[in-house]
Amino acid sequence: MLIDLEPLLFLGWLAVIGGLLNTVGDWRMLGFPIAGKEFALEMIKDKPLNHVVFGVYIAMGAIPLWFGIIFATLYLLRNSPVWVQATVSVSTLLFIMFSFVYHIAHIFYDIGCRNDDAPNIERTLAEMKRMRTFLMPISLIMALGLIVGGILGGAPIWWIVFNPFVITILILLISRAAPAPIGGYLLPGGFSLGWTLFCLVTMLAV
Fold first, then answer.
1. Tens digits of per-residue pLDDT, 181-197?
2. Residue 70 DSSP code
3. Which of 9, 137, 162, 194 is most buried (most C-beta within 10 Å)?
């Protein structure tokens, strides 16, 4: 590693804070006191408009903070091959950028729902679905890079196991089965909460 990453490790804590803020924003925007299996995205129109606006603007301010975790991740992978570090870095950047746009899309979906604008709802849902289609393989590539790089670079085993893909899948499965009122809040914030826990675990590992 040509760059001294230690002075930049503190930026990882900004990523943790950004993850927590965005999780709160997701709960504010989409959380309902219902069971996880009852949650549906179109319920966003039943939230007060200021809750949706709050969630979107929190995302705009909080998600850029997520970039800070890249330095801590690269520090843990400093003894791994360069191609692994590059793969993790690029996939992490793509994950954050797609997450940013995905969260902003909620405001357009909400506008369509409140105005019964079927064409706008259809277009927005199609784009959100497309973004999720990209996010899943990006997350998987990032997770595989962390696993391979962690093993080759001698990172802590517990950090390798608790990668963002595994954490998020576990949270979503648990939240889907969770009863009211836990499931209705845990599920909408599942992705952000999973990312937050990964950032926290990373900072504890450095």
1. 999 999 999 999 999 99
2. H
3. 194
> What band does 4 get if pLDDT is binned at 50, 70 and 90?
confident
**Burial label, 184 (beta-carbon count in 10 A; 0-12, 13-18, 19+):** buried
Report whether 106 contacts 44 (CB < 8 A).
yes
Q: Which of 66, 69, 70, 68 is nearest to 58 (CA)?
A: 66
- Give CA–CA dist 155/157, Å, rounded: 6
Tell me the two tokens of residue 48: 């007060």
Helices 69-76 + 11-30 axis angle, to 10:
130
Q: Distance between terminal CA atoms of the chain?
A: 15
Q: Which amino acid is at 161?
A: V
Give the largest CA-CA distance in the chain.
Answer: 55
Is the model's pTM score more than 0.90? yes
Those residues whose C-beta lies under 8 Å from the C-beta of residue 189, and which sit 6 or more positions away, are: 23, 24, 26, 27, 30, 31
List of residues 6+ apart from 85 with CB closer than 8 A: 1, 74, 77, 78, 149
Measured CA to CA in angstroms, residue 67 lies from 125, 189, 206 at distances of: 27, 19, 16
Mean pLDDT of the chain: 94
